[in-house]
Write a structure and sequence with these properties.
45% helix; 9 strands; 5-stranded parallel β-sheet; alpha/beta; Rossmann fold; 4-stranded parallel β-sheet; 2 domains
Length: 293
């Protein structure tokens, strides 16, 4: 079953931000769709239900003629078995005026007139659809992270954060730190298998190297503390509005110690409610060089 959400409300109350948040949750978002096209779009999405299961439509005062019909159209859709949820975003007039002054944008109804009069007119126009709203959020005193928390409460299907994705990325410092890193950890303090002849040409994906690195006290303590820190940080990153994190773990060549540690961290993190993958960026670079000699 497709979940349909209509995001509407006062201009400047955060509709665009909410649509971006829903898009990050996997919603197919369409902004400022003409109201009369909603039934046709609904039918089209239902025909594509195998690939799209969440849809969010942004409707604002620019749809002025259609707004008067929105209530009847939604009622008709529900009567035909198509359920819509309406999220209405509200804010105090003084706050909206301040936001327009700070962004120097024009209110859709202001044209050459005063913003305060346009806001009053918009509030009257939207009164009917506000009464039909399933959720009303007053964003007057919300930061983006506060708004994100409220949207998560309403639209995440579970209490967990399955839409957050973590990449564990290993690298060699001699090849440079990955530019997309959110967190970088240096594990060159761990014993180096490179200096053990029988381990030198293996990698952290091989059991012998993994056990050599991860059975040391330094690796055991570091893994436990790194896991606890990451487990603490991720929910706080989510509160700030992030939907993904790249944790980069580096050693000299990106082949032995970093790979072993990242693989161990991956095993620890698999039980957490996040998307997770491990990627070894530089693991083959030394091998390629030797093959070319």
């Amino acid at each position: 079953m497709i979940r349909f959400v209509i995001v509407t409300g006062m201009s400047g109350a955060g509709r665009g931000s909410v649509l971006r948040m829903l898009e990050d949750m996997g919603y197919f978002c369409v902004d400022n769709l003409p109201v009369r096209l909603i039934p046709k779009l609904t039918k089209a999405f239902l025909e594509e239900r195998n690939s799209i299961d969440r849809v969010a439509l942004g409707i604002d005062i620019r749809n002025q003629q259609g707004l008067s019909e929105l209530g009847d159209i939604v009622d008709g859709m529900k009567e035909n078995g198509y359920h819509y949820e309406i999220l209405f975003l509200e804010a105090d007039s003084a706050v909206l005026i301040k936001r327009y002054k700070e962004t120097r944008r024009n209110h859709p109804l202001a044209l050459q007139g005063r913003v305060d009069k346009a806001i009053e007119a918009e509030r009257r126009e939207l009164a009917a659809i506000k009464k039909k709203a399933d959720y009303i959020l007053d964003t007057s005193h919300m930061l983006i992270r506060d708004l994100k928390q409220e949207i998560d409460k309403i639209f995440l299907d579970t209490d967990e954060y399955e839409n957050f994705f973590v990449t564990l990325l290993t690298f060699g410092f001699k090849y440079g730190i990955p530019e997309d890193s959110d967190l970088v950890f240096d594990v060159r303090f761990l014993p180096n298998p490179y200096y053990i002849p029988e381990l030198k040409n293996l990698t952290g994906n091989d059991r012998e190297v993994y056990e050599y690195v991860m059975t040391t006290k330094q690796a055991t303590v570091f893994l436990e503390q790194l896991y606890e820190m990451v487990k603490f940080l991720i929910p706080n990153y989510i509160i700030e509005g992030k939907n993904q994190m790249v944790i980069s773990i580096g050693c000299t060549g990106g082949k032995h110690r970093s790979v072993s540690l990242a693989n161990a961290l991956f095993e620890r993190m698999k039980a957490l409610p996040y998307g997770l993958k491990v990627e070894h960026r530089d693991i083959k670079k030394d091998i390629v060089r030797k093959g070319g000699v």
